[in-house]
Inverse folding.
């Protein structure tokens, strides 16, 4: 989630919009200016067909995206409608809202007629001096649906949260991971899959043969000038890996395995509040922090051969964990290769791909697409396209066994076009301005050196798991 730093004090609602990434720089004409005062949004002129009204809406607290409920309406006669707000029957368009001395434009979608309820669909700061409108679509904070139905403090079907292990921490997390650069001593093979991370100047690799037996690694990285807590998780049943930053206000920032699964995927718990967290949804699904979303960081899953070529300075997690496990063997037999499942999942009949096909998946709003790793050409390739309302670039290689996807529209609204770069790892692509970018979406040469492409809601997982969470995904040919 991108946090925009502001110097002035905004009203509660628009500050929330900024934190949620809904408000983006733009420019539209000034109209019959609405105002936001406290929880009341006053619209002085709203045209509905041939009629014109003065309308008041009330902010519904605790909603994300923000929702406003109809409060009152007074019909007007002889009103100036040249730049009025308009309601089409489905969308309420407001050309100018004044809040905290700043003008915004906004659009709301009608989501309920009884009561009349609108949900924020988009908006932006009105730039001084006019100019063309510029709005960069932002990733949804959550990988899942917006505003899921919460019943008995659970945001997914409670009956589908099932017991997968004996109980909390029956699969023990690694609390004090040890790393080495004496790679030969570990016996790791070039074709073994690892999860690679790069935070600041620290580069680390986590081999599957250790992750398979522990699933959660509680870590510390130097980030923004101080030692901070991070958690790497990997679910061996769904083939998905995530990196989350610890919650700043928590005394205990660590996570553990809960023993539960949802759609065969790892459910963690945080040791501060005991909230349950769906790994692939990347949010709290039961407990005090339900629907909370962690700060997410990019990971790259690839082979040890590719990763060590990208980052020869990397350190490697060792099997010196303090636990006795048969590292090097997979806990679930032939599960990674065959078509069997150990636990029921949603959307089980979508067999467009082999269930254990590794795919890079991305979600943008209601749109979802997957790029099977095996379908990337052997050489590094780039795919510039649009998923949902976002311009993205997916890059990968079947031979080097990786795939990542980024938002290719920058904060200044420039949309870049990318071409692949060979034999310069970790550089994997170049844009039409001449900048070169690494596998983590950072510009390493060119006029935009240091610029970071925006992380998307994307990660690698097995096909059966992706389609269970995000049914109807388009498949890259």
């Amino acid at each position: 989630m991108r946090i925009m730093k502001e110097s002035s004090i905004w009203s509660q609602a628009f500050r929330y919009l900024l934190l949620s990434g809904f408000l983006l720089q733009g420019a539209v004409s000034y109209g019959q200016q609405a105002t936001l005062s406290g929880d009341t949004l006053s619209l002085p002129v709203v045209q509905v067909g041939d009629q014109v009204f003065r309308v008041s809406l009330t902010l519904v607290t605790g909603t994300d995206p923000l929702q406003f409920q109809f409060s009152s309406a007074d019909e007007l006669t002889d009103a100036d409608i040249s730049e009025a707000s308009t309601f089409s029957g489905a969308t309420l368009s407001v050309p100018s809202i004044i809040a905290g001395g700043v003008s915004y434009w906004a659009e709301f979608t009608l989501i309920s007629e009884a009561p009349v309820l609108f949900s924020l669909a988009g908006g932006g700061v009105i730039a001084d001096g006019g100019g063309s409108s510029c709005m960069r679509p932002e990733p949804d904070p959550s990988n899942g649906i917006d505003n899921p139905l919460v019943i008995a403090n659970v945001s997914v079907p409670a009956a589908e949260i099932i017991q997968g292990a004996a109980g909390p921490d029956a699969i023990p997390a690694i609390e004090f991971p040890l790393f080495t650069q004496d790679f030969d001593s570990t016996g790791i093979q070039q074709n073994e899959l690892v999860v690679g991370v790069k935070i600041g100047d620290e580069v680390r690799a986590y081999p599957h043969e250790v992750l398979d037996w522990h699933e959660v690694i509680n870590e510390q990285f130097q980030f923004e000038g101080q030692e901070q807590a991070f958690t790497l998780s990997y679910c061996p049943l769904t083939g998905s890996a995530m990196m989350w930053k610890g919650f700043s206000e928590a005394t205990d920032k660590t996570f553990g395995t809960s023993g539960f699964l949802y759609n065969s995927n790892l459910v963690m718990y945080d040791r501060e509040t005991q909230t349950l967290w769906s790994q692939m949804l990347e949010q709290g699904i039961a407990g005090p922090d339900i629907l909370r979303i962690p700060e997410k960081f990019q990971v790259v899953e690839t082979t040890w051969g590719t990763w060590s070529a990208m980052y020869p300075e990397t350190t490697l997690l060792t099997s010196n964990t303090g636990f006795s496990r048969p590292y090097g063997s997979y806990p679930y037999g032939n599960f990674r290769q065959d078509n069997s499942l150990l636990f029921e999942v949603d959307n089980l009949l979508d067999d467009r791909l082999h269930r254990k096909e590794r795919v890079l998946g991305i979600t943008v709003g209601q749109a979802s697409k997957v790029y099977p790793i095996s379908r990337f050409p052997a050489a590094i390739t780039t795919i510039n396209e649009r998923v949902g309302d976002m311009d993205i670039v997916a890059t990968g290689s079947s031979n080097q066994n990786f795939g990542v996807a980024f938002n290719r529209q920058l904060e200044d609204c420039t949309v870049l076009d990318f071409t692949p770069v060979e034999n310069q790892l970790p550089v994997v692509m170049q844009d039409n301005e001449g900048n070169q970018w690494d596998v983590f979406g950072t510009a390493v040469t060119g006029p935009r050196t240091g610029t970071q492409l925006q992380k998307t809601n994307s990660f690698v997982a097995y096909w059966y798991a992706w389609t269970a969470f995000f049914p109807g995904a388009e498949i890259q040919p």
Residues 1-31, 129-133 have pLDDT under 50 and may be disordered.
